[in-house]
Amino acid sequence: MGPEAAQYADCAGQMDKDAFWKYVDAIFENQGGIALATADDKLKELAAANGLDATKIAACAASPQTDAPDQEIIGAGTVPER
Fold it and tell me: Are the beta carbons of 12 and 59 closer than 8 angstroms?
């Protein structure tokens, strides 16, 4: 699993604070089934299964702002409260 999971999780937090933790938990539980070659498809599937719009989350994750290596730009370290 590569940085895609972090990008998708960041976008989930931006889209729906309540769904964020469910989505992160689903990624964690399914991390063994998320291969780099199929990460986008699996992460979109998990997003939809957790009440998120898979198309919007994929577009967010693919945006230059989310794809930036600088953690401050992608919001790393800012975790929604439970």
Answer: no
Q: What is the mean pLDDT of residues 35-53?
A: 92
pTM above 0.85, yes or no: no
- At position 8, the amino acid (one-letter code) is Y
Contacts of 22 (CB under 8 A, 6+ apart): 50, 51
Q: Cβ contacts of residue 6 below 8 Å, gap of 6+?
A: 74, 76
Query: Smallest Cα–Cα separation from 31: which of 46, 15, 10?
Result: 46
Say what the pLDDT of residue 23 is.
Answer: 92
Q: Which of 55, 35, 59, 36 is nearest to 45 (CA)?
A: 55
